[in-house]
Specification:
By secondary structure, this protein is an alpha+beta fold. The chain has helices spanning 11-21, 40-48, 60-69, 80-95, 97-100, 104-124, 134-141, 144-152, 165-186, 197-217, 221-226, 235-241, 247-261, 265-278, 280-293, 309-321, 354-358, 403-417, and strands spanning 24-29, 32-37, 130-131, 328-331, 337-339, 342-344, 349-352, 429-432, 434-437, 443-444. The strands form 4 sheets. The protein has a 4-stranded mixed sheet. Strands 3-10 form a two-stranded antiparallel ribbon. A two-stranded antiparallel sheet has the order 5-6. The structure holds protoporphyrin IX containing FE. Its cofactor is heme.
Protein backbone atom coordinates (compact mmCIF):
# COMPACT_ATOMS: atom_id res chain seq x y z
CA UNK A 1 0.00 0.00 0.00
CA UNK A 2 1.12 3.52 -0.64
CA UNK A 3 0.96 6.12 2.04
CA UNK A 4 1.44 9.28 0.09
CA UNK A 5 1.91 11.82 2.82
CA UNK A 6 5.19 13.68 2.73
CA UNK A 7 4.73 15.21 6.17
CA UNK A 8 5.57 11.83 7.63
CA UNK A 9 9.29 12.00 8.34
CA UNK A 10 11.76 9.85 6.42
CA UNK A 11 13.09 6.65 8.05
CA UNK A 12 16.52 7.88 9.22
CA UNK A 13 14.87 11.13 10.38
CA UNK A 14 12.41 9.10 12.43
CA UNK A 15 15.35 7.59 14.30
CA UNK A 16 17.05 10.97 14.75
CA UNK A 17 13.87 12.65 15.96
CA UNK A 18 13.19 9.85 18.39
CA UNK A 19 16.67 10.31 19.83
CA UNK A 20 16.09 14.05 20.19
CA UNK A 21 12.50 14.16 21.43
CA UNK A 22 11.69 10.74 22.83
CA UNK A 23 9.01 8.34 21.53
CA UNK A 24 6.29 10.98 20.97
CA UNK A 25 6.61 14.41 19.36
CA UNK A 26 4.62 16.82 17.26
CA UNK A 27 5.72 18.16 13.90
CA UNK A 28 4.30 20.83 11.69
CA UNK A 29 4.95 21.29 7.96
CA UNK A 30 2.93 24.02 6.31
CA UNK A 31 -0.71 23.10 6.87
CA UNK A 32 0.13 19.64 8.23
CA UNK A 33 0.13 18.99 11.93
CA UNK A 34 1.22 15.51 12.92
CA UNK A 35 1.75 13.60 16.16
CA UNK A 36 4.58 11.11 15.72
CA UNK A 37 4.73 7.97 17.83
CA UNK A 38 7.86 5.86 17.62
CA UNK A 39 7.73 3.13 20.24
CA UNK A 40 5.86 -0.19 19.89
CA UNK A 41 3.85 0.58 23.02
CA UNK A 42 2.61 3.95 21.75
CA UNK A 43 1.98 2.56 18.25
CA UNK A 44 -0.18 -0.13 19.85
CA UNK A 45 -2.06 2.50 21.89
CA UNK A 46 -2.98 4.40 18.71
CA UNK A 47 -4.01 1.27 16.82
CA UNK A 48 -6.10 -0.07 19.69
CA UNK A 49 -8.15 3.14 19.62
CA UNK A 50 -8.47 3.34 15.84
CA UNK A 51 -12.22 2.65 15.84
CA UNK A 52 -14.35 0.42 13.63
CA UNK A 53 -13.42 2.01 10.33
CA UNK A 54 -9.83 3.27 10.66
CA UNK A 55 -8.56 6.04 8.38
CA UNK A 56 -4.88 6.33 7.46
CA UNK A 57 -4.82 9.95 6.33
CA UNK A 58 -6.81 12.31 4.17
CA UNK A 59 -5.92 11.94 0.51
CA UNK A 60 -7.56 15.10 -0.89
CA UNK A 61 -5.51 14.98 -4.09
CA UNK A 62 -6.45 11.37 -4.85
CA UNK A 63 -10.10 12.21 -4.17
CA UNK A 64 -9.87 15.28 -6.39
CA UNK A 65 -8.52 13.16 -9.23
CA UNK A 66 -11.31 10.58 -8.84
CA UNK A 67 -13.97 13.35 -8.80
CA UNK A 68 -12.44 14.97 -11.85
CA UNK A 69 -12.63 11.74 -13.80
CA UNK A 70 -15.96 10.61 -12.36
CA UNK A 71 -14.41 7.45 -10.91
CA UNK A 72 -15.38 5.46 -7.84
CA UNK A 73 -13.25 6.27 -4.77
CA UNK A 74 -11.95 2.81 -3.81
CA UNK A 75 -10.15 1.51 -0.74
CA UNK A 76 -7.74 4.37 -0.19
CA UNK A 77 -10.15 7.26 -0.57
CA UNK A 78 -13.44 5.82 0.69
CA UNK A 79 -14.17 6.06 4.38
CA UNK A 80 -16.41 4.53 7.02
CA UNK A 81 -19.05 2.07 5.90
CA UNK A 82 -18.28 2.64 2.22
CA UNK A 83 -14.66 1.56 2.74
CA UNK A 84 -15.77 -1.36 4.88
CA UNK A 85 -18.20 -2.56 2.20
CA UNK A 86 -15.41 -2.72 -0.40
CA UNK A 87 -12.98 -4.36 2.04
CA UNK A 88 -15.55 -7.02 2.96
CA UNK A 89 -15.82 -7.99 -0.70
CA UNK A 90 -12.05 -7.98 -1.32
CA UNK A 91 -11.06 -9.79 1.87
CA UNK A 92 -12.41 -13.34 1.55
CA UNK A 93 -10.39 -14.43 -1.47
CA UNK A 94 -7.26 -12.52 -0.52
CA UNK A 95 -6.90 -13.08 3.18
CA UNK A 96 -8.21 -16.57 3.82
CA UNK A 97 -5.30 -18.96 3.80
CA UNK A 98 -7.12 -21.79 2.06
CA UNK A 99 -8.40 -19.43 -0.68
CA UNK A 100 -4.95 -17.94 -1.25
CA UNK A 101 -3.44 -21.42 -1.55
CA UNK A 102 -5.46 -21.78 -4.74
CA UNK A 103 -3.19 -19.17 -6.34
CA UNK A 104 -0.09 -21.31 -5.68
CA UNK A 105 0.15 -22.84 -9.19
CA UNK A 106 -0.09 -19.46 -10.88
CA UNK A 107 2.50 -17.94 -8.54
CA UNK A 108 4.81 -20.88 -9.24
CA UNK A 109 4.47 -20.27 -12.97
CA UNK A 110 5.53 -16.67 -12.49
CA UNK A 111 8.43 -17.69 -10.23
CA UNK A 112 9.48 -20.24 -12.87
CA UNK A 113 9.58 -17.42 -15.43
CA UNK A 114 11.58 -15.33 -12.98
CA UNK A 115 14.19 -18.08 -12.63
CA UNK A 116 14.47 -18.43 -16.40
CA UNK A 117 14.79 -14.68 -16.72
CA UNK A 118 17.60 -14.56 -14.15
CA UNK A 119 19.36 -17.39 -15.97
CA UNK A 120 19.04 -15.60 -19.32
CA UNK A 121 20.40 -12.37 -17.88
CA UNK A 122 23.15 -14.18 -16.02
CA UNK A 123 24.41 -15.89 -19.16
CA UNK A 124 24.23 -12.63 -21.04
CA UNK A 125 26.22 -10.73 -18.39
CA UNK A 126 29.93 -10.06 -18.94
CA UNK A 127 31.24 -12.47 -16.29
CA UNK A 128 28.30 -14.88 -16.59
CA UNK A 129 27.52 -14.41 -12.90
CA UNK A 130 26.76 -10.79 -12.10
CA UNK A 131 23.34 -9.30 -12.61
CA UNK A 132 24.04 -5.65 -12.38
CA UNK A 133 22.43 -2.23 -12.32
CA UNK A 134 18.72 -2.45 -12.95
CA UNK A 135 18.73 -6.07 -13.92
CA UNK A 136 18.18 -7.78 -10.61
CA UNK A 137 15.64 -5.25 -9.44
CA UNK A 138 13.91 -5.52 -12.77
CA UNK A 139 13.87 -9.31 -12.46
CA UNK A 140 12.51 -9.24 -8.99
CA UNK A 141 10.19 -6.39 -9.80
CA UNK A 142 8.56 -8.80 -12.11
CA UNK A 143 7.01 -10.58 -9.19
CA UNK A 144 4.02 -8.21 -9.36
CA UNK A 145 3.35 -10.31 -12.42
CA UNK A 146 2.08 -12.72 -9.76
CA UNK A 147 -0.60 -10.37 -8.57
CA UNK A 148 -1.61 -9.53 -12.12
CA UNK A 149 -2.02 -13.23 -12.95
CA UNK A 150 -4.22 -13.62 -9.93
CA UNK A 151 -6.28 -10.58 -10.72
CA UNK A 152 -6.61 -10.80 -14.47
CA UNK A 153 -6.09 -14.45 -15.19
CA UNK A 154 -3.29 -13.17 -17.42
CA UNK A 155 0.25 -11.97 -16.94
CA UNK A 156 1.50 -8.43 -17.31
CA UNK A 157 4.39 -9.96 -19.21
CA UNK A 158 7.21 -8.45 -17.16
CA UNK A 159 9.28 -11.57 -17.67
CA UNK A 160 9.17 -11.89 -21.38
CA UNK A 161 12.31 -11.10 -23.40
CA UNK A 162 10.76 -7.82 -24.36
CA UNK A 163 8.57 -6.24 -21.72
CA UNK A 164 5.23 -5.18 -23.25
CA UNK A 165 4.69 -1.45 -23.68
CA UNK A 166 1.61 -1.42 -21.46
CA UNK A 167 3.44 -3.10 -18.62
CA UNK A 168 6.28 -0.59 -18.72
CA UNK A 169 3.68 2.16 -18.86
CA UNK A 170 1.97 0.82 -15.73
CA UNK A 171 5.20 0.51 -13.76
CA UNK A 172 6.39 3.96 -14.83
CA UNK A 173 2.99 5.46 -14.01
CA UNK A 174 3.01 3.81 -10.57
CA UNK A 175 6.44 5.28 -9.85
CA UNK A 176 5.44 8.73 -11.11
CA UNK A 177 2.17 8.78 -9.22
CA UNK A 178 3.81 7.80 -5.93
CA UNK A 179 6.65 10.27 -6.27
CA UNK A 180 4.38 13.11 -7.36
CA UNK A 181 1.75 12.33 -4.77
CA UNK A 182 4.04 13.69 -2.06
CA UNK A 183 4.91 16.82 -4.03
CA UNK A 184 1.35 17.59 -5.06
CA UNK A 185 0.06 17.31 -1.52
CA UNK A 186 2.51 19.88 -0.28
CA UNK A 187 2.27 22.52 -2.98
CA UNK A 188 -0.41 25.23 -2.77
CA UNK A 189 -3.18 25.08 -5.39
CA UNK A 190 -2.02 28.18 -7.28
CA UNK A 191 1.21 26.41 -8.27
CA UNK A 192 -0.76 24.05 -10.49
CA UNK A 193 -0.92 26.67 -13.22
CA UNK A 194 2.82 27.32 -13.19
CA UNK A 195 4.42 24.06 -12.10
CA UNK A 196 4.08 20.78 -13.97
CA UNK A 197 3.50 18.47 -10.99
CA UNK A 198 -0.30 18.34 -10.79
CA UNK A 199 -0.59 17.72 -14.56
CA UNK A 200 1.96 14.94 -14.33
CA UNK A 201 0.17 13.44 -11.33
CA UNK A 202 -3.11 13.40 -13.26
CA UNK A 203 -1.35 11.91 -16.29
CA UNK A 204 0.19 9.19 -14.12
CA UNK A 205 -3.22 8.26 -12.69
CA UNK A 206 -4.73 8.32 -16.19
CA UNK A 207 -2.06 5.89 -17.35
CA UNK A 208 -2.58 3.60 -14.36
CA UNK A 209 -6.30 3.44 -14.92
CA UNK A 210 -5.83 3.12 -18.66
CA UNK A 211 -3.44 0.20 -18.50
CA UNK A 212 -4.65 -1.37 -15.29
CA UNK A 213 -8.25 -1.33 -16.28
CA UNK A 214 -9.30 -0.46 -19.78
CA UNK A 215 -6.32 -1.91 -21.57
CA UNK A 216 -6.71 -5.23 -19.83
CA UNK A 217 -10.21 -6.44 -19.57
CA UNK A 218 -12.73 -3.81 -20.50
CA UNK A 219 -13.45 -5.53 -23.76
CA UNK A 220 -13.52 -9.15 -22.79
CA UNK A 221 -13.99 -10.28 -19.19
CA UNK A 222 -16.59 -7.81 -17.97
CA UNK A 223 -18.45 -7.96 -21.26
CA UNK A 224 -18.81 -11.70 -20.89
CA UNK A 225 -19.87 -11.47 -17.27
CA UNK A 226 -22.34 -8.72 -18.05
CA UNK A 227 -23.73 -10.86 -20.83
CA UNK A 228 -24.51 -13.42 -18.15
CA UNK A 229 -21.87 -15.89 -19.35
CA UNK A 230 -20.18 -18.16 -16.84
CA UNK A 231 -16.47 -17.32 -16.99
CA UNK A 232 -13.81 -19.49 -15.46
CA UNK A 233 -11.09 -17.54 -13.73
CA UNK A 234 -9.72 -16.14 -10.57
CA UNK A 235 -10.03 -12.96 -8.62
CA UNK A 236 -11.41 -10.58 -11.19
CA UNK A 237 -14.10 -13.01 -12.16
CA UNK A 238 -15.03 -13.30 -8.52
CA UNK A 239 -15.29 -9.52 -8.16
CA UNK A 240 -17.29 -9.11 -11.33
CA UNK A 241 -19.69 -11.88 -10.65
CA UNK A 242 -20.29 -11.38 -6.93
CA UNK A 243 -22.53 -8.42 -7.66
CA UNK A 244 -21.60 -6.50 -4.55
CA UNK A 245 -19.47 -3.80 -6.15
CA UNK A 246 -20.30 -1.44 -8.98
CA UNK A 247 -18.22 -1.85 -12.12
CA UNK A 248 -16.46 1.42 -11.26
CA UNK A 249 -15.54 0.06 -7.84
CA UNK A 250 -14.21 -3.15 -9.39
CA UNK A 251 -12.06 -1.09 -11.78
CA UNK A 252 -10.54 1.05 -9.07
CA UNK A 253 -10.05 -1.89 -6.71
CA UNK A 254 -8.17 -3.79 -9.38
CA UNK A 255 -5.95 -0.78 -10.10
CA UNK A 256 -5.23 -0.38 -6.38
CA UNK A 257 -4.43 -4.05 -5.93
CA UNK A 258 -2.07 -3.93 -8.89
CA UNK A 259 -0.44 -0.85 -7.43
CA UNK A 260 -0.01 -2.73 -4.16
CA UNK A 261 2.07 -5.28 -6.04
CA UNK A 262 4.52 -2.78 -7.51
CA UNK A 263 7.71 -2.29 -5.49
CA UNK A 264 6.50 -4.07 -2.35
CA UNK A 265 7.31 -7.76 -2.72
CA UNK A 266 10.01 -6.93 -5.28
CA UNK A 267 11.95 -4.62 -2.98
CA UNK A 268 11.60 -6.97 -0.05
CA UNK A 269 12.93 -9.82 -2.15
CA UNK A 270 15.79 -7.67 -3.42
CA UNK A 271 16.84 -6.88 0.16
CA UNK A 272 16.47 -10.51 1.26
CA UNK A 273 18.66 -11.71 -1.62
CA UNK A 274 21.16 -8.97 -0.88
CA UNK A 275 21.56 -10.02 2.77
CA UNK A 276 21.65 -13.71 1.99
CA UNK A 277 24.34 -13.01 -0.60
CA UNK A 278 26.42 -11.28 2.07
CA UNK A 279 25.80 -13.86 4.75
CA UNK A 280 26.89 -17.33 3.73
CA UNK A 281 25.75 -18.92 7.00
CA UNK A 282 22.16 -17.67 6.63
CA UNK A 283 22.15 -18.63 2.99
CA UNK A 284 23.32 -22.17 3.79
CA UNK A 285 20.86 -22.56 6.62
CA UNK A 286 18.02 -21.53 4.34
CA UNK A 287 19.27 -23.83 1.60
CA UNK A 288 19.43 -26.78 3.97
CA UNK A 289 15.91 -26.10 5.21
CA UNK A 290 14.52 -25.83 1.70
CA UNK A 291 16.29 -28.99 0.56
CA UNK A 292 15.09 -30.93 3.60
CA UNK A 293 11.45 -30.04 2.91
CA UNK A 294 11.59 -29.98 -0.91
CA UNK A 295 14.47 -32.20 -2.00
CA UNK A 296 15.71 -32.24 -5.58
CA UNK A 297 13.56 -30.33 -7.98
CA UNK A 298 10.41 -30.37 -5.85
CA UNK A 299 8.67 -27.02 -5.55
CA UNK A 300 7.30 -25.94 -2.17
CA UNK A 301 3.54 -26.25 -1.74
CA UNK A 302 1.57 -23.96 0.55
CA UNK A 303 1.32 -26.69 3.15
CA UNK A 304 5.13 -27.16 3.14
CA UNK A 305 5.64 -23.62 4.39
CA UNK A 306 4.74 -24.53 7.97
CA UNK A 307 7.89 -26.66 7.95
CA UNK A 308 10.06 -23.80 6.72
CA UNK A 309 10.39 -21.47 9.73
CA UNK A 310 13.77 -20.14 8.60
CA UNK A 311 12.37 -19.06 5.24
CA UNK A 312 9.65 -17.13 7.04
CA UNK A 313 12.20 -15.70 9.49
CA UNK A 314 14.32 -14.39 6.59
CA UNK A 315 11.33 -12.50 5.19
CA UNK A 316 10.33 -11.24 8.65
CA UNK A 317 13.82 -10.00 9.34
CA UNK A 318 14.02 -8.34 5.93
CA UNK A 319 10.73 -6.55 6.54
CA UNK A 320 11.91 -5.52 10.01
CA UNK A 321 15.03 -3.89 8.58
CA UNK A 322 13.35 -2.51 5.46
CA UNK A 323 9.65 -2.07 6.18
CA UNK A 324 8.16 -1.30 2.78
CA UNK A 325 5.84 1.17 4.47
CA UNK A 326 8.30 2.80 6.91
CA UNK A 327 5.73 5.13 8.41
CA UNK A 328 1.99 4.65 8.40
CA UNK A 329 -0.81 6.98 9.46
CA UNK A 330 -3.95 7.00 11.55
CA UNK A 331 -6.38 9.87 11.60
CA UNK A 332 -8.69 9.80 14.60
CA UNK A 333 -12.17 10.15 13.21
CA UNK A 334 -14.82 8.97 15.63
CA UNK A 335 -13.29 9.42 19.05
CA UNK A 336 -10.95 11.46 21.12
CA UNK A 337 -8.00 9.32 22.18
CA UNK A 338 -5.46 9.13 24.98
CA UNK A 339 -1.91 8.18 24.04
CA UNK A 340 0.96 8.20 26.52
CA UNK A 341 -1.42 9.90 28.95
CA UNK A 342 -1.91 12.83 26.60
CA UNK A 343 -5.42 13.61 25.37
CA UNK A 344 -5.95 14.14 21.62
CA UNK A 345 -9.09 15.50 19.96
CA UNK A 346 -10.85 14.01 16.92
CA UNK A 347 -9.07 14.70 13.62
CA UNK A 348 -5.60 14.21 15.08
CA UNK A 349 -3.21 12.84 12.47
CA UNK A 350 -0.86 10.27 13.99
CA UNK A 351 2.27 9.09 12.24
CA UNK A 352 3.24 5.57 13.27
CA UNK A 353 7.04 5.46 12.98
CA UNK A 354 7.43 1.78 12.20
CA UNK A 355 10.97 2.16 10.96
CA UNK A 356 12.15 3.75 14.23
CA UNK A 357 10.36 1.04 16.25
CA UNK A 358 11.82 -1.84 14.30
CA UNK A 359 15.34 -0.37 14.44
CA UNK A 360 15.21 0.21 18.18
CA UNK A 361 18.12 -1.44 20.01
CA UNK A 362 15.89 -1.82 23.07
CA UNK A 363 13.66 -4.14 21.04
CA UNK A 364 16.18 -5.74 18.72
CA UNK A 365 19.75 -6.24 19.89
CA UNK A 366 22.15 -5.28 17.07
CA UNK A 367 19.18 -3.86 15.22
CA UNK A 368 21.25 -2.97 12.16
CA UNK A 369 22.36 -6.59 11.73
CA UNK A 370 20.48 -9.09 9.62
CA UNK A 371 19.64 -11.95 11.99
CA UNK A 372 16.70 -14.09 10.90
CA UNK A 373 17.35 -16.31 13.95
CA UNK A 374 15.79 -13.72 16.23
CA UNK A 375 12.39 -14.79 14.87
CA UNK A 376 12.82 -18.50 15.53
CA UNK A 377 11.10 -19.89 18.57
CA UNK A 378 13.46 -21.91 20.72
CA UNK A 379 16.59 -20.67 18.90
CA UNK A 380 19.35 -19.38 21.23
CA UNK A 381 19.25 -16.09 19.30
CA UNK A 382 15.51 -15.60 19.68
CA UNK A 383 14.01 -13.39 22.38
CA UNK A 384 10.79 -11.66 23.29
CA UNK A 385 9.98 -8.35 21.73
CA UNK A 386 6.88 -6.20 21.78
CA UNK A 387 4.23 -7.55 19.36
CA UNK A 388 3.99 -4.09 17.71
CA UNK A 389 7.76 -3.63 17.31
CA UNK A 390 7.69 -4.88 13.72
CA UNK A 391 4.31 -4.94 12.00
CA UNK A 392 5.20 -4.51 8.33
CA UNK A 393 1.70 -5.28 7.04
CA UNK A 394 -0.09 -3.37 9.80
CA UNK A 395 -2.59 -5.02 12.13
CA UNK A 396 -6.35 -4.94 12.48
CA UNK A 397 -9.15 -4.42 9.98
CA UNK A 398 -7.25 -1.89 7.87
CA UNK A 399 -4.08 -3.99 7.59
CA UNK A 400 -2.67 -4.92 4.18
CA UNK A 401 -5.24 -6.76 2.09
CA UNK A 402 -2.44 -8.27 -0.03
CA UNK A 403 -0.50 -9.73 2.92
CA UNK A 404 -1.19 -13.40 2.23
CA UNK A 405 -0.58 -13.13 -1.50
CA UNK A 406 2.60 -11.12 -0.90
CA UNK A 407 3.89 -13.69 1.57
CA UNK A 408 3.16 -16.60 -0.73
CA UNK A 409 4.91 -14.84 -3.62
CA UNK A 410 7.96 -14.05 -1.51
CA UNK A 411 8.22 -17.53 0.08
CA UNK A 412 7.96 -19.30 -3.26
CA UNK A 413 10.30 -16.90 -5.04
CA UNK A 414 12.95 -16.84 -2.32
CA UNK A 415 12.97 -20.58 -1.82
CA UNK A 416 13.42 -21.24 -5.51
CA UNK A 417 15.92 -18.45 -6.19
CA UNK A 418 17.96 -19.60 -3.20
CA UNK A 419 19.45 -22.25 -5.43
CA UNK A 420 21.68 -19.50 -6.85
CA UNK A 421 24.41 -17.44 -5.12
CA UNK A 422 26.16 -14.50 -3.88
CA UNK A 423 28.11 -11.18 -3.26
CA UNK A 424 27.18 -7.47 -3.29
CA UNK A 425 28.36 -3.96 -2.38
CA UNK A 426 26.52 -2.06 0.35
CA UNK A 427 23.44 -0.14 -0.60
CA UNK A 428 21.39 2.17 1.60
CA UNK A 429 17.61 2.48 1.45
CA UNK A 430 15.83 5.68 0.45
CA UNK A 431 12.17 6.65 0.59
CA UNK A 432 9.98 7.45 -2.35
CA UNK A 433 6.71 6.97 -0.46
CA UNK A 434 7.83 3.36 -0.14
CA UNK A 435 11.24 2.34 1.17
CA UNK A 436 13.43 1.38 -1.78
CA UNK A 437 17.15 0.75 -2.41
CA UNK A 438 19.08 3.98 -3.04
CA UNK A 439 21.07 2.42 -5.85
CA UNK A 440 20.90 -0.78 -7.87
CA UNK A 441 21.72 -3.94 -5.98
CA UNK A 442 24.33 -6.02 -7.79
CA UNK A 443 24.33 -9.73 -7.10
CA UNK A 444 26.32 -12.64 -8.41
CA UNK A 445 24.24 -15.70 -9.18
CA UNK A 446 26.12 -18.99 -9.39
CA UNK A 447 24.25 -22.18 -10.14
CA UNK A 448 24.56 -24.61 -7.22
CA UNK A 449 26.35 -27.87 -7.84
C1 LIG B 1 5.96 -6.91 1.12
C2 LIG B 1 4.74 -6.71 0.69
C3 LIG B 1 3.76 -5.72 1.28
C4 LIG B 1 3.83 -4.97 2.43
C5 LIG B 1 4.96 -4.93 3.46
C6 LIG B 1 2.61 -4.21 2.52
C7 LIG B 1 2.30 -3.34 3.55
C8 LIG B 1 1.11 -2.66 3.68
C9 LIG B 1 0.78 -1.78 4.78
C10 LIG B 1 1.67 -1.44 5.96
C11 LIG B 1 -0.46 -1.30 4.55
C12 LIG B 1 -1.23 -0.30 5.43
C13 LIG B 1 -1.95 -1.07 6.50
C14 LIG B 1 -2.59 -0.18 7.55
O1 LIG B 1 -2.90 0.98 7.29
O2 LIG B 1 -2.76 -0.67 8.66
C15 LIG B 1 -0.94 -1.88 3.31
C16 LIG B 1 -2.19 -1.64 2.75
C17 LIG B 1 -2.59 -2.15 1.53
N1 LIG B 1 -1.92 -3.07 0.75
FE1 LIG B 1 -0.09 -3.85 1.14
N2 LIG B 1 1.83 -4.50 1.44
C18 LIG B 1 2.49 -5.43 0.67
C19 LIG B 1 2.03 -6.01 -0.51
C20 LIG B 1 0.80 -5.79 -1.06
C21 LIG B 1 0.29 -6.47 -2.24
C22 LIG B 1 1.02 -7.56 -3.04
C23 LIG B 1 -0.93 -5.95 -2.49
C24 LIG B 1 -1.89 -6.32 -3.59
C25 LIG B 1 -2.44 -7.50 -3.64
C26 LIG B 1 -1.20 -4.95 -1.47
C27 LIG B 1 -2.35 -4.19 -1.40
C28 LIG B 1 -2.65 -3.30 -0.38
C29 LIG B 1 -3.87 -2.50 -0.34
C30 LIG B 1 -4.95 -2.47 -1.40
C31 LIG B 1 -3.84 -1.79 0.87
C32 LIG B 1 -4.89 -0.81 1.38
C33 LIG B 1 -5.86 -1.55 2.30
C34 LIG B 1 -6.94 -0.66 2.89
O3 LIG B 1 -6.75 0.55 2.95
O4 LIG B 1 -7.98 -1.19 3.30
N3 LIG B 1 -0.13 -4.89 -0.61
N4 LIG B 1 0.05 -2.70 2.80
Amino acid sequence: MKNPAIFFSLPPTQVEHKKLYGPIWRSRFGPFDVVNVASPELISQVIRQEGRYPVRSELPHWKEYRDMRGQAYGLHVDKGLQWYRIRSVLNPKLLKLEEVSAYAPVIHQVVGDLLQHIERLRLRSQDHTTLCVVLIVQCVLSVPAGISSILFEMRLGCLQEEIPKDTLKFIAAANDMLTLSETVLFLPLWTRNVLPFWKRFVQAWDNLVDVGIHGRFDHNMDAQVLAGKQVEGMYLTYLLSCDKLTLGEVYISITELLLGGVDTTSNTLSWALYHLARDAASQDRLYREIMSVCPGRLQPRSKDLSRMPYLKAVIKETLRMYPVVPGNGRLTVDNEVVVDNYWFPKKTQFHLCHYAASHDEGEFVDAECFRPERWLRGDPESYQHHPYSSIPFGVGVRACVGKRVAELEMYFALSRVNKRKDGAPTTEPKTRTLLIPSKPINLRFLPRA
